[in-house]
Design brief:
Length: 227
């Protein structure tokens, strides 16, 4: 297994970016920043010849990616048997409007991870993984809420996927038109997109004396990025 100190993932037959390879990134900093900023991953796997892609939340602790859910979940029951899995995370940064329909594109950052997930059974590691889920979604939240009790821990299945085989793909910048199209009288450029929060809505049963914490009022995904 690659060490967490390694500056880059070693491309494999599966993780090597083949289409538009110049957009490939294999360094850990880029991969981890994308994973840490995203909220939802899509888990792909095959059961009895049938492909499935399931969206789910996730968390990361160093070189381990964690997913969790009910022990009754078909996806988690299947993955814990040791089958190959593909996990993807995509961040959409903007629309790229070209002068021709053909060259329209999007600016994005994406990560693909391949591997085999294993069940987390050790109680302390399982609790730490659940903390990572919470902190991944809302940094600072875990220290204020009630932690999972024994029953809740028992009723939650956690799987770990080693971050060994992974790659990122990134597109930035303006459109790239055919040279003869630059003279067309058509607006072209980038339309940046970002994930933004609206005004927090308090639980109707919340005491009026409790104000929303700073991590709610100043919430931003960019603040969750880690090296």
């Amino acid at each position: 297994m690659e060490s967490i100190e390694s500056p880059a993932f070693v491309p494999t037959q599966r993780s090597t970016v083949k289409r538009l390879a110049k957009r490939a990134e294999y360094d850990r900093t880029t991969v981890y920043q994308i994973l840490d900023e995203g909220l939802i991953c899509h888990v792909g796997f095959v059961v009895d010849g049938n492909p499935f892609v399931i969206p789910t939340a996730y968390g990361r602790i160093e070189e381990q990616l964690y997913i969790h859910g009910s022990p009754a979940s078909r996806m988690l029951r299947t993955l814990q048997t040791g089958i190959d899995v593909c996990v993807t995370v995509t961040l959409l940064d903007g629309l790229v409007l070209a002068r021709s329909a053909f060259h329209h594109s999007m600016n994005y950052r994406s990560v693909v991870v391949f591997g085999t997930a294993s069940i987390v059974s050790e109680p302390e590691q399982k609790l730490e993984a659940l903390r990572a889920f919470t902190e991944h979604i809302v940094p600072g939240r875990w220290s204020e809420v009630r932690p999972p009790n024994r029953s809740e821990l028992t009723g939650t299945l956690v799987l770990a996927l080693p971050l060994v085989e992974a790659s990122a793909k990134v597109r930035t910048g303006p459109p790239v038109d055919d040279e003869e199209d630059y003279a067309l009288p058509v607006w072209a450029g980038e339309l940046p997109l970002e994930l933004a929060t609206a005004q927090p809505i308090a639980d109707p049963r919340l005491s009026s004396a409790i104000e929303p914490p700073a991590y709610v009022t100043a919430y931003t995904r960019a603040a969750t990025r880690q090296a």
